[in-house]
Write a structure and sequence with these properties.
With about 220 residues, the chain is of the alpha/beta class. The chain contains six helices and nine strands. It binds S-adenosylmethionine.
Length: about 220
């Protein structure tokens, strides 16, 4: 996962590489708009699962009250690079984002902190089904009752629950997530119509909203 990060070797003459870099760093002002349309306000706490280079996180960090944003990523290099970059662009440290490089999906690295919102963009698509299940199970450790969970996934094979596309990409359908939601005590809704064009990674991108029913609600 760290491989993407080598900005020292980024060639400004290579327009494809530059476009990709700018997309990862500057793109996606609309994710914040989506979360706001589902009730996010500055006093809420939000955790982003899979922050990458902080492409979306930068907007949440800017909007939320200081100390209210946390995020994790499997790539420490992405977090480090993004933090360094945004330190030069905004009042990054004053907002006290809590950023964690994680090596497991336990959520124990959150030290018991609990949040009102959980956000994840284009991450489950890169995880095998058993890791997604582990994440659904363990994310509950950091959710307040009634917390809102928003995430995207890729649905290309609508009639098949799981399909491995290549070494790091999986396609799931809504039924796959609905079954996990039921098992772990979440209400689930396909809210893809709330997603502006700009947030679509591709035509198969879907947006899901879940609400955690709270302790003792799993089937
Ligand atoms: C396609 S990128 C999306 C990054 C960011 N959400 C964005 O939209 O720019 C997927 C990210 O998920 C991270 N990732 C994959 N599996 C993960 C896991 N189990 N826990 C945390 N991060 C993970 C990768 O390191 C990568 O940064």
């Amino acid at each position: 996962m760290d491989g993407f990060v080598n900005v020292e070797t980024l060639d400004a003459e290579d327009s494809d590489a530059m476009r990709r870099f700018e997309y990862y760093i500057n793109g996606d002002p609309d994710s914040l708009g989506i979360a706001k349309s589902f009730g996010l306000r500055p006093h809420h706490t939000l955790h982003e699962f899979g922050v990458g280079f902080l492409r979306t996180a930068q907007h949440f960090i800017n909007y939320l009250d200081a100390g209210n944003f946390s995020g994790n990523d499997a790539s420490n290099a992405r977090i480090e690079f993004g933090s360094e970059y945004f330190r030069r662009k905004m009042a990054f440290d004053a907002k006290r984002p809590k950023l964690i490089a994680n090596t497991d999906n336990s959520f124990d690295w959150m030290d018991g902190c609990k949040v009102d919102y959980f956000w994840s963009l284009a991450v489950f698509t890169h995880m095998p089904p058993e890791d997604i299940e582990e994440t659904f199970n363990n994310m509950r450790k950091i959710l307040k009752p009634n917390a809102v969970v928003l995430f995207t996934y890729s649905e290309r094979a609508v009639d098949r629950n799981i399909e491995r596309y290549n070494v790091k990409d999986w396609w799931h359908n809504f039924a796959f997530y609905a079954e996990l939601a039921e098992r772990y005590g979440f209400e689930i809704e396909d809210v893809s119509e709330a997603m502006p064009e700009s947030v679509h990674i591709n035509a198969a991108t879907r947006l899901v909203k879940m609400r955690w029913r709270g302790e003792g609600s799993a089937s």
